[in-house]
Amino acid sequence: MNFQKNLVALIFLILRSHLALGLCIDSAGGNYTSKSTYRANLETVLSYMPANVNSSSGFYSASAGQTPYMVNAIVLCRIDAPLDTCRRCIQDLTAALLKECPNQKQAIGWYEFCMVRYSDQTIFGTLATSPFVYWWILTKVTSPDKYNEGLRTVLDSLRNQASNGGSLRKIAAGNVTVPDFQIIFALVQCTPDLSADDCNSCLISAAGDLSTCCNGFKAASMNYPSCTIVYQTNNHFYNETRLQELQFVPPPPPPPPPPPPPPPSPHGTIIRTVVITTVVLIAVIVLLRKENETEIKEELLSKYSCSFPSLIFKGSYIYLSVMTIVYIFKQDCEYCAESLDYGFSTIKAATNDFSIDNKLGQGGFGVVYKGTLENDQEIAVKRLSMNSGQGDQEFKNEVVLLAKLQHQNLVRLLGFSIQENERLIIYEFLHNGSLNNFIFDPIKRLSLDWDRRYKIIEGIARGIQYLHEDSGLRIIHRDLKTDNILLDGEMDSKIADFGLARLFKHDGSQVYTSNIVGTPGYISPEYAAHGQFSFKSDVFSFGVIVLEVISGQRSKSIKDGENVDLVSC
């Protein structure tokens, strides 16, 4: 399969004039509350962005408040869009971000004609290439090599024009004719507060990611916080007259200073110092051309009982994000003959209505059942508990990550099912269950000779190596333990349970978090004490598993009435 980088695919068919996506981001300064000074400053700075956006550059940046309650915000419109369209776009998008990210101090969102970004960190004049989103049209070109050559030519030319556009605007648009009488129309844009070099670097990076994610598609867009590339075939989507007029418009006077922020809160706030932010939701948008919408809506309606508008405006975000995995697999999956989307009634029947007799185990997020499909295929079904408060998050992680991964030492995802509050994940069934059923059982342990134990350890190591390096995604599991190592009929080990896993985009240095997750006894000391985690956190957990496999003793146990820690023995 051709899944790229750290992105989750999302079909988001908005039945109105523009396309929407918002990303909520964890902040180093924590979250804010609804009545906090930060929230007041945020509402203040966002309220005057639409009226003050520069009509000649489509850009405006402002701050409100003082540290630690300061809010920095940026808006950027496609400057070929009319000013009233730009302002409405900003108003709609800011309202959507405040609704969808009610407590995050950092967020970014895109509509078709605008971007809104705010943060408690410095964002002005700074190159940012993450998080990013892209969309593409599900139509391939007939001569991809020649098409890509033409696309590179026009993007290189536009990049040079945009990066040298000056401090008022950095935008360029143009077209090139490619084989089969096709014309590629392209538009590139940087936030004008970037230097020429940073704009150039941003567009080079975006073009590289675009060629990776969307190679051969007739239309696509790569959206960074600092720059955007859009191209379409045989569709003159930008207002060329407006762009030409802007070349001769004199610079406008500087915008008026922003209104004063609300007075600081008399109550202090405890701020945890965290040195790096973590994106909590990365998404990909698939923009569908109008001629494809009817077909796709009909297919969605055939799969789900609710009407299409309610699916968009009432259905959960998780519901929408997972639906597109079906499309991704139909387009790119070489080994799956059927859709990932299992009907709830099918799984209910396979597990005998989730009978207690079919129960295999229970974890923090739900219960696992054995099931048998009508074709006699055995499956394992995780029924997530929505009462845990993290069920949707784990559901998203499991489906999104495992859909991208394929390795002999990782449990294989077969599909998912959603109905109202039910979240089901379907895996391959592994006959020998979890590793801890063997190594901690005095009878079953006898079947594990040293060669077998070595093979199990080697399989776990290969799975970790794939997650950290070979998959191309760089994933930290964060909950490696013997419970989450499953054994197939040949006693080969497979890593399971990716509900707490995270994509890791950094160079291996540590990331800090105040939300400590995982299982005591397997968590590294620096993670447990200070919230520092990295690939080494998984390596520490692996070391504990190795000790358990060799010794047959649990990492934490009670002996003679006292707690015993295997690692410190």
UniProtKB/TrEMBL annotation:
It comes from the Eukaryota. This is non-specific serine/threonine protein kinase. GO terms for molecular function: ATP binding; protein serine/threonine kinase activity. Residues 20-123, 129-236 form the Gnk2-homologous domain. It comes from Erythranthe guttata (Yellow monkey flower). One of its GO terms (biological process) is immune response. It catalyses: L-seryl-[protein] + ATP = O-phospho-L-seryl-[protein] + ADP + H(+); L-threonyl-[protein] + ATP = O-phospho-L-threonyl-[protein] + ADP + H(+). InterPro entries: GNK2, GNK2_sf, Kinase-like_dom_sf, Prot_kinase_dom, Protein_kinase_ATP_BS, Ser-Thr/Tyr_kinase_cat_dom, Ser/Thr_kinase_AS. Residues 249-266 have a biased composition (Pro residues). Its EC number is 2.7.11.1. Residues 1-22 form the signal peptide. Pfam families: PK_Tyr_Ser-Thr, Stress-antifung. ATP binds at K382. Residues 354-569 form the Protein kinase domain. It is found in: Membrane. Residues 248-267 are annotated as: Disordered. PANTHER family: CYSTEINE-RICH RECEPTOR-LIKE PROTEIN KINASE 27-RELATED (PTHR27002:SF1104), RECEPTOR-LIKE SERINE/THREONINE-PROTEIN KINASE SD1-8 (PTHR27002). It is a single-pass membrane protein.
